[in-house]
Each structure stands twice: as structure tokens, then as C-alpha cells.
Amino acid sequence: DLSPEDARVFEKESFAPVKHTAKETHLTLNTIYLNSSDIHSEIIRTCENEQPDFLILGSARTIFSSDILGGVVRRILPEVSCDVLIFNEKNFREINQVLILYFNNGDDYLLNYARMFKHNNETSFYYYLHSSGTNLSSVESEFTGISAIPVNGSLLQPGFLKSMDLVMIAAKNWKTLEEEDKLPIDQFPSFLIIHK
Questions:
Q1: CA–centroid distance for 25 within its chain
Q2: Is 40 helix (H, G, I), strand (E, B) or coil?
Q3: How far apart are CA 88 and CA 108, in angstroms?
């Protein structure tokens, strides 16, 4: 257990980088630190009281796990009324290259989040269309406000994956992609898995 003073120091130090980034990008950010043995209940209660636009959770499991959305995260998803963004960090520094894994099955909300990352003109967006039966030109109209480059061919190209800073995917499509494509997850950069 942390003393109240240690908790305040830990909170200040832990949130300093994200607060700095929020300030630089002119985002309003409210952080809450709680020392609890029942984190699931505390998160649910805080969401009910605070009514956030979205909740950002770090993935406590390694990206190599067979169930990245397991544990506390899986319990939280159906119980909160806001979107949940699950961030799995792998040497993340900045957002310059973003790959959107797009299924065109109601996951167009990913594009709204991608637009939030368009805070500088140096961010490049790429998208991989998972559904082979979808007309590419009809999908491109969904990308209004984002100049996105389609990725043709296989996602298994290590050189391409290493050039990305972040991969975005809908939570409902994560398991499908993982199972169908037998992806080399260890070669992927940081993930942002979004549950709507």
C-alpha cells in the first residue's frame, strides 16, 4: 500500500508525460489516480460518476498473449457506456505513421479517432481493407479529412510494419484478424484497440 503522500507523488510522476502531450495538442484531459485492490469496480464507478467521452486503458497483458483483451479489460468493456481505447505500447514515441485495420463492418468510428491524431501535417495514415468483397472507391469516401494510403498485399511485410508507430483496430475485429491471418504480432508496433 502507498501512503497518501507517496500516492500523490506517484500520480504526478505517472501522468506527467500524458499531461504534457495533452497540453501541446490542446486537448482537455482529466486524470484520476486511485489506489485500489478492486480496480474493475473503481473504473466502472468512476465512469458512471464522471461520464467521460472515452476511457483509455493500458493493456496489462503482453502483446504476445493469446488474449490481449483479457482480464480486467474484458470485464470493463460491456459495463461502461463510453468508448474504451486499449493501448498496448511497444517502444512508442510519437505518432507519425498510423495503420488503420479497416473491416468496413461498422468500424468507421476508427476514422474519427484517427482524425484526432491529425494534429500535425507530418502524420501519415495508411489503411488495410480486410474485406476483399468491398469496393475500394466506396471505402475511400469514408476517409474524409484523412489522406490515407491503401496498403495492398500482405500485412506480413516486416519492413512496412516496423515503419508504423501505431496500429488502430476495432475491438470486435481484433480476434478475427488474429485468428484468420495468423499475424506475426511480435512484428507489430503499438496497438490502439477501440471498443465502441
A1: 17
A2: helix
A3: 21
Tens-of-pLDDT digits for all 196 residues of the chain? Answer: 678 788 788 888 888 888 888 888 788 888 888 878 898 999 999 999 999 999 988 875 554 555 667 778 888 999 999 999 998 888 888 888 999 999 888 898 999 899 888 766 788 999 988 866 666 666 666 777 788 888 877 666 778 888 899 999 999 998 777 776 566 666 778 889 999 9
3-state helix, strand, coil in the chain (%, to 5): 40, 20, 40
SS3 120: coil
**DSSP bridge partners of 99:** 126, 167
| Rounded Cα distance, 159 and 90, in Å | 16
Length of the chain counted residue by residue? 196
Q: How far apart are CA 192 and CA 130, in angstroms?
A: 17
- Flag whether the pTM goes above 0.85: no
Distance from C-alpha of 75 to C-alpha of 41, rounded to nearest angstrom:
10
Cα separations in angstroms, 170 against 30, 159, 163, 184: 24, 24, 21, 18
- How many Cβ atoms are within 10 Å of 110's Cβ, its own excluded? 21
HSE toward the beta carbon, residue 160, CA cutoff 13 A? 17
